[in-house]
Specification:
With 227 residues, this protein is of the alpha+beta class. The protein contains eight helices and eight strands, in the order E-E-E-H-E-E-E-H-H-H-H-E-E-H-H-H.
Length: 227
C-alpha cells in the first residue's frame, strides 16, 4: 500500500503504525473506530436479498476498476424514514468501514428521514470514523453515491419523480459523449492522470482539443477527493 501523502516515520515508530509501506517507510494510521467497523461491520448483507425484501437498490463502481458498492434500503412510507439499510462491497478496509458507519448514521434512532439522510456528506462519515488516509477519502464518497442512487430508484419506483435528484453533467468530449461526471467517477475509481482516465473512458482520443479541459478536471477532482 502506497500513500504519497502519508507521514514519514522513523524505525522506532513502526511498531505502533497500523500500515507501513516497506519501501517508503510511510504509514497509514487508522482510528480505533475505523478498525472496529472493518472487523465488525454493521448492517452487512451476506446473502442476496429475496424479491420484495427491500424497496430500492443503488450500485456504484466496477470490479474491473476498483471498489464496488451495493446499498439496499427499506423506507417507511408514512414517515419517509429509512428504517433499514443493508450493503455489500468489493473493496478495501476503508470502504468497508465507511459504509458500515454510514449505515449506522442513516438508521440510528429509528431511521433518518430521507431528506436528512441525503444531507449526510462524506466529510460527516469521515468525522464519525475519526478520519481516513488521504488516498482513501473516495471510499466514503462511494457510500454516499450508492445511497443517492438507491433513493432515486425508490422515488422512481413509488412515482415520486419530482423528488429525484439529478446532478448536472456537462459534455466534455462531444465525439464520445463523455461528461465531467464521467471523469469524476474515473478519478474516484483511482485514475489520477490523463493516461489513467483515457484507459477507462477513451476521452479526448478522438477530440484532442478537449484534452486541456480534461486535464483540468482531473486536477480538480483529485484535489477535491484526495487533497
Amino acid at each position: 500500500m502506497d500513500d504519497t501523502n502519508a507521514t514519514p516515520i522513523s524505525t522506532s515508530d513502526m511498531q505502533s503504525s497500523d500500515v507501513v509501506n516497506p519501501h517508503t517507510k510511510q504509514k497509514w494510521a487508522y482510528s480505533a473506530i475505523v478498525k472496529e467497523h472493518f472487523f465488525h461491520p454493521k448492517n452487512l448483507l451476506l446473502e442476496e436479498p429475496v424479491e420484495g425484501q427491500f424497496d430500492a437498490r443503488g450500485t456504484v463502481g466496477s470490479p474491473a476498476c476498483g471498489d464496488v458498492m451495493d446499498i439496499w434500503i427499506k423506507v417507511d412510507k408514512n414517515s419517509d424514514r429509512v428504517t433499514e439499510l443493508k450493503w455489500k462491497t468489493f473493496g478495501c478496509g476503508s470502504a468497508i468501514a465507511a459504509t458500515s458507519m454510514f449505515s449506522e448514521m442513516v438508521t440510528e434512532n429509528g431511521g433518518a428521514k430521507i431528506e436528512d439522510a441525503l444531507k449526510i456528506k462524506p466529510q460527516d462519515i469521515m468525522e464519525r470514523l475519526g478520519g481516513l488516509p488521504n488516498r482513501k477519502i473516495h471510499c466514503s464518497v462511494l457510500a454516499d453515491k450508492a445511497f443517492r442512487k438507491a433513493v432515486n430508484n425508490y422515488f422512481h419506483a413509488t412515482g415520486q419523480h419530482s423528488r429525484v435528484e439529478v446532478e448536472g453533467a456537462r459534455v466534455v468530449d462531444a465525439r464520445m459523449n463523455i461528461t465531467d461526471k464521467d471523469i469524476e467517477e474515473a478519478v474516484l475509481e483511482g485514475a489520477q492522470t490523463l493516461e489513467d482516465v483515457q484507459k477507462k473512458l477513451k476521452v479526448g482520443v478522438g477530440d484532442p482539443e478537449s484534452i486541456p479541459e480534461i486535464e483540468q478536471l482531473i486536477r480538480f477532482y483529485s484535489e477535491k477527493y484526495y487533497g
